[in-house]
Backbone:
């Protein structure tokens, strides 16, 4: 699986409403599955990257190649570091998704994870707003941690398939909010975040899908892939346990 490629995202301050906003942004939006549009979660906040990767056909296939797999709930969002990734240009801003682990499925035996751990998932924060009155390195992203919190709020059930964080390529210019001393900092692959949408749970009829992909939709591996077989988070957990992932 190849690493996702971030797109330099600059939004004109002149185009922040109506159709002009769509023309001014360089964020790249991935498509939404039909059932996602009926839900309460706004995963579009995460789908702003171009990813060149080989989609794996099932949750267990992804779990096999990631060092940490954990079930939990969203604990919140916090500002990550700002990086000097673009010469003479804006900074690349990161954001951390905090997951309170309730059920570790992989990583405990290796000492990477324990029950009640806080897993911090490092994500790209998205486009910055061009402000000609400031230097490019002072431009800030359109989306704040509060925007992410509104899109995917605390308490949302989640399963994460992640690896230990790799060092940033760009120099850290601003460190962002401090992490706890024993924080588990991680990096996700494009298929590495799955959420359960509470509105879909409440609306669910018969075998309706109530889990959604984060960075990529669940059907990115195809409409007959193993990702579409579990309909809710409990079924996803049961499937992973059936394939030997239990800690």
Residues:
């Amino acid at each position: 699986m190849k690493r996702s490629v971030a797109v330099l995202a600059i939004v004109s301050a002149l185009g922040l409403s109506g159709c002009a906003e769509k023309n001014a942004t360089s964020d790249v939006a991935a498509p939404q599955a039909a059932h996602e549009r009926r839900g309460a979660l706004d995963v579009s906040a995460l789908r702003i990257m171009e990813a060149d990767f080989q989609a794996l056909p099932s949750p267990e296939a992804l779990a096999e190649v990631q060092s940490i797999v954990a079930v939990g709930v969203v604990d919140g969002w916090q500002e990550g570091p700002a990086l000097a990734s673009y010469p003479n240009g804006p900074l690349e801003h990161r954001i951390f998704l905090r997951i309170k682990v309730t059920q570790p499925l992989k990583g405990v035996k290796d000492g990477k994870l324990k029950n009640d751990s806080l897993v911090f998932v490092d994500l790209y924060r998205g486009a910055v707003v061009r402000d000609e009155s400031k230097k490019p390195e002072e431009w800030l992203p359109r989306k704040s941690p509060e925007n992410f919190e509104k899109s995917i709020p605390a308490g949302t059930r989640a399963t994460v398939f992640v690896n230990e964080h790799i060092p940033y390529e760009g120099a850290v210019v601003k460190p962002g909010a401090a992490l706890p001393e024993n924080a588990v900092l991680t990096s996700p692959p494009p298929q590495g975040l799955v959420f359960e949408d509470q509105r879909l749970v409440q609306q669910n009829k018969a075998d309706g899908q109530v889990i959604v992909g984060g960075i990529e939709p669940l059907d990115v591996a195809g409409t007959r892939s193993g990702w579409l077989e579990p309909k809710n988070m409990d079924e996803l957990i049961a499937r992973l346990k059936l394939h030997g992932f239990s800690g």
Remarks:
- The radius of gyration is 18 Å.
- Residues 1-25 have pLDDT under 50 and may be disordered.
- The chain has one domain: 32-125+143-242.
